[in-house]
Amino acid sequence: MSQATPIGVIGIGLMGMACARRMRAAGLELLGYDVDAKKLDAFVNLGGKAASSVAEIASKCRKVVLAVFNTDQVEETVDALVAALPAGKPPLIALCVSTCDPDRISQLVARIPEDKVRYVESPVSGTSGQTEQGDALGMIGGDPAAAEEAKDVLDAICPRRHHLGAAGNGGRAKLAINLILGVNRAALAEGLVFAHKLGLDPSAFLKVARESAAQSQVMDIKGPKMVSGDYTPQGFITQTRKDFLLMLEQAKERGQGLPLAETYVSIVDGCVAAGEGNLDNSAVIEEIRRRKPA
Q1: Residue 293 has what DSSP assignment?
Q2: Each residue of 259-294: pLDDT tens digit?
Q3: How far is the C-alpha of 179 from the C-alpha of 116, rounded, in Å?
Q4: Would the pTM of this model clear 0.85, i.e. be above it?
Q5: Domains of the chain
Q6: Residue 1 predicted with pLDDT over 50
């Protein structure tokens, strides 16, 4: 690989590593940073180089993928990039794959100087595993020209994508989709537990369910994990809890109740209380198994 300017990656968690693998497979050189230096070991083994700070990313990269945990971290990182960009350098393009508060992202984009950072909202729908396989769907918001300029990065991370208009709209679509996904996960888990209590073999029942009118992609991705009890993370319980609390907050501001989302939060709260917060979100089945009749 001979690309002179590396792509920056800030946040080397599950999604950050999935994006890194996609970009390395596309022939892009990478420079990564994470506040937890231990996470950089896998990144370096992949062929990326480790940066010592956000400032180093700002000085050496023109395009940066943000894969941090929440909106607070996105704001802090963008502000740090703006502050660290050397004088005379062209603006950075920051592509954020994190699930964030869409209203705050709109405000962030409105206040950051365009001669410093051009922000492309680019959350993806799909697990880290689906992203790594190129199956995730990108929901792009913000400056179309900046998104086009970063086409090499977006093509690598999310070959399938839709531009949804202004910054914030990508996050709005992501939250609504994640609500549907989370409720589907809970419904699948409850159905599997119910089938087992009725005397059916869960593995055999899952095969039947996947051919039924109830079939969904959730059954394909999460069903085998629920049946086997393999909760190796593709997306953490704590992460899905963060997203659902954000959904409830957004809905409340608009005068909308989300009864199924509220139920889902109570389920993942039970998982967190049981010490399962760092497991895959398919582990919601464990909390449903623990529930007893009222």
Answers
A1: -
A2: 999 999 999 999 999 999 999 999 999 999 999 998
A3: 34
A4: yes
A5: 7-165 (3.40.50.720), 171-290 (1.10.1040.10)
A6: no
Q: 């230096």: which residue's tokens?
A: 37
β partners of residue 124: 138
Tell me the C-alpha distance between 286 and 270, whole Å: 9
- Can you tell me the distance from the alpha carbon of 278 to that of 233, in angstroms, rounded to the nearest whole number? 7
Mean pLDDT of 138-145: 96
- One DSSP character per residue, 166-231 reads STTHHHHHHHHHHHHHHHHHHHHHHHHHHHHHTT--HHHHHHHHTTSTT--HHHHHHHHHHHHT--
Interval 191-225: pLDDT, tens: 999 999 999 999 999 999 999 999 999 999 999 99
Q: Which amino acid is at 255?
A: G
3-state secondary structure of 165: coil
112-118 average pLDDT score: 94
Sequence-ordered list of residues with C-beta below 8 angstroms from that of 91, at least 6 positions apart, any chain? 85, 114, 115, 116, 117, 118
* CA 99 distance to own-chain centroid: 6
Pairing of strands 160-163, 63-66: unpaired
Rounded to whole angstroms, the Cα distance separating 28 from 65 reads 12
Q: What is the DSSP string of 21-89?
A: HHHHHTT--EEEE-SSGGGHHHHHHHT-EE-SSHHHHHHH-SEEEE--SSHHHHHHHHHHHHHHSPTTP
- Say if CB 188 and CB 226 are below 8 A apart: yes
By the 10 Å C-beta count (0-12 exposed, 13-18 middle, 19+ buried), 252 is classed as exposed
pLDDT digits (tens, 9 = 90+) for 218-268: 999 999 999 999 999 999 999 999 999 999 999 999 999 999 999 999 999
What is the pLDDT at residue 274? 98
Structure tokens at 61: 């990269």
